[in-house]
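User: Second chain of the day. Same drill as before.
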Amino acid sequence: MHTEFTLILVVWVITVAILGIYYWRKRESSAGVVLTYVALFSGSHAMQGAVYAMPWYTPRFEPALIFAGFVQSTIGLISLAVTVMIFVPVVRQAIRKSRSSLPQTSPMLIDEPQSSSRLPMFYIATGLIAYFILTPIFSSVPTVSAFIGGLYRLVHIGLALAFWQVFTSPKRNSFRLFVLIGLTMFWPLVTITNEGFLGFGLWPTVFIFIFVMLRQRRYVVPLVLILIAFYLGLSLIVTYYGERPVIRGVVWGESEFETRVNTLIQVIEKNTRAFNIYDGQQLSYIDERLGLNRLVGLGIRRLDTGINQYAGGETILNAALMIIPRAIWPEKPIELGGQAMVNLYTGVYMYGDTTVALGQVLEFYVNFGTVGVIAGFIVFGLLLAAVDQGSVRALKAGNYYSAALWLIPAFGLLLPENNLIAVVGSSVSGWLTLVAFNMIPFLLFSSRWRTRLGGEAKHAASSNSVIGDISSTQ
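Assistant: Same format as last time:
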């Protein structure tokens, strides 16, 4: 089946290339949200398809299953691409015409462009405090831990805003740029050392990387850097998977931080693997860990053989119900999620510390088949495009509060391996967290509030002076 895999892979590469060219030409109106999703989606599906297109590789799984999943994921990719490149511009133009006579507004827009210049660094500092200090303390408290989880996303939102400041400033601050690049590049190593997971730090780094690439003026620099980053990323992935038992043994064994860092340094110094396309073990790592196609194929087979019935929108309804908090609706009827759904729809059991979700391709498919995949990725494309364009409009207006509120849902949407329940829950909780938290920097940095408070202080001082004068005359 190598030829069939190669043909689908060619379609995939052409689609991604067209999307890349499209967004490069429209980079002034994109934050890179759509391209980041496509990059991560490709990592979850296309990488495994590429491995099975190599004649020298001995497959770990049944090729027919992988191929069935790869076809459905390709249909999803094409549906998303058509949506963002054709459907979204048409809809946007229609909305412009219908609203041409109405005043233009932006959701959650706070008109404080000049007073929020310190907000990016404030976000970064808050996110670091939440990640390193608050998370370990409150990890066992459900509501508080969810709030803090939204706060430590501010690290990468702050990075995006700070990079925007650097690239739009008349005089580029080289030192600040160097610090921002360093924090972005080392974040995956931070999550490996602190949690034992590479993916937690890699995908937000991919977003920041694409965000920065779209801020460049010439295509040569991004093209070269993307190729280098792709190869280095593959090398990091195969190195991590090869040494993961050692790393997790130290991290999850609650070793001292110094021991964790030393272990990671030893792995980097002695066991770093340069990615080799002919290395069967490295290809096996990709096949095993970047292989959502297999789950999709298993789900299709169970539906075709009658073991399972189509969900008919049940999981999508459950995701919609996630918006309603249990504090309001304690008996909310959501029973299945995460690995329970994987077991139900694929028959695969996960043991030990392995955690796997359905992924969006399979979840859309188990509801309505191929039609569900097409419709699902059309809706997903609309959401991604709205977040992408809304955040850039706010950035161009100099409004970082609003830009952050547009970007925070992306940290739920940019996870193609997650169930829709997790996507909706993460996006909504993150947005609500930031709505509440934004009151703090707004009060700290708002010139409007400082002027009002200063006026009240002067008025109070003046009143005290008058009272004192009256008292002294009596």
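The first helix runs from residue 2 to 25.

User: Great, on to the next one.
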